[in-house]
Design a protein that fits this description.
One of its GO terms (cellular component) is nucleus. Helices cover 31% and strands 23% of the residues. The chain is an alpha+beta fold and 366 residues long.
């Protein structure tokens, strides 16, 4: 399931709900007036999917607010639907819906009016055409896979109806149908060739293996992403979600979903020239665990509280974090920061209660 959003208004509709059956590849495209809430999505789903095909065993979607809401999760749990969500920063996990979106958009681009306000009228014919085209994956049309026979096709010629307007409409319909069918067949072949050209067998990892994580989609707290490390970690694999997705043990301060596609992972290869960086453990100070501060990089006032941007000894740039000034027990480094940046917030820092270069900080997960 997926949404196509921000479309020009057509009969009051601006959104298309895309639903694709993973087995038969049959698709349904539902015009909607706006992006629905979770409560609004349930009756739409029942009307356009459950009413026709029954309750599905599982649903794959992205992490849109509707799909991760407690209302939608509760509905699916109570009717016996297993929910799966796409991997972080890898929309190909929900590839069937993504491809369906591309096909329906291509159809609309070819036949929509100049004002782009008639796409709602084209949706039924687009669905009929897509469900009647032979799927490369199954060798049959989605219609045949579901119902056991192919749908009727338009006749090669139409008899004269003696109604000029009707004759013109039927001729246009036949021409449109042929163009759509040829375009879909050509598009399907081209997409398959391009995809296969770049595909390689996915590496296999075991639980407990350590891997590097691409920083491509992670906003690191560094002055310039151009000079930032391309991979961060290494992080331990917690579990295998499916053949191409794995869950990682991320630090608590990296607040993103911890399931990633293998294309974003790189194995940790060690030889006699490499040395794995093991983050130093905390030290105990007055019964509390604290970590050593490498440097104070910045200062700010957030919600009335002075905070320092801290770089930690033995940790990478992805682990840098903002901490309240009261929790940073490194007066020497604080003084050095203000000597270099006298105009920074809190330019006259209060002396800390004890010396040293330590601070509280959430450690890495085991």
């Amino acid at each position: 399931m997926d949404f196509i959003v921000e479309l020009p208004e057509s009969k009051g509709n601006t959104v298309i709900l895309t639903v694709i059956d993973r087995f038969s590849k049959m698709g349904h495209y539902v015009p909607l007036r706006k992006l629905p809430s979770a409560a609004e999505l349930v009756p739409i789903f029942i009307t356009n999917v459950v009413r026709i095909h029954g309750i599905p065993l599982g649903i794959v979607s992205d992490r849109g607010t509707q799909f991760v809401s407690r209302f939608w999760k509760g509905f699916c749990k109570n009717v016996g639907i297993d929910l799966s969500f796409s991997s972080a920063y890898h929309p190909q996990t929900n590839g069937a819906a993504e491809r369906a979106n591309q096909n329906i958009e291509k159809y609309l681009r070819c036949f929509i009016s100049e004002r782009q306000d008639n796409w709602s009228d084209l949706i039924p014919w687009a669905e009929y055409a897509l469900n009647s085209a032979v799927s490369e994956a199954t060798g049959h049309s989605p219609f045949f896979t579901v119902y056991g026979f192919d749908p009727p096709v338009l006749p090669a010629t139409f008899p004269d109806t003696a109604i000029p307007a009707l004759d013109e409409h039927l001729a246009s319909l036949k021409e449109t149908w042929g163009r759509v069918k040829r375009a879909l067949e050509d598009s399907s072949g081209i997409q398959k060739i391009k995809a296969d050209r770049h595909r390689r067998p996915a590496p296999v990892y075991q639980v407990g293996d350590r891997v590097w994580l691409s920083s491509r989609n992670i906003k690191l707290l560094v002055p310039s992403m151009k000079l930032a490390p391309r991979y961060i970690g290494p992080y331990k694999i917690l579990r295998r979600i499916n053949p191409v997705s794995y869950a990682l043990a991320l630090p608590s301060h990296i607040r993103i979903h911890n399931v990633f596609h293998v294309s974003l992972l790189k194995p940790l290869l060690c030889n006699r020239y490499t040395r794995v960086r093991v983050p130093p453990p905390p030290v105990s100070v007055e019964g509390e665990e604290e970590f050593e501060v490498e440097a104070i990089l910045d200062a700010r006032v957030s919600r009335g509280v002075l905070q320092y941007f801290v770089d930690w000894v033995g940790y990478g740039p992805e682990d840098r974090s903002w901490l309240p000034a009261t929790e940073v027990h490194a007066p020497r480094l604080v003084r050095a920061f203000y000597l270099a940046h006298p105009r920074a917030p809190g330019g006259r820092p209060v002396a800390a209660r004890r010396g040293g270069v330590l601070s509280r900080w959430p450690p890495h997960p085991p």
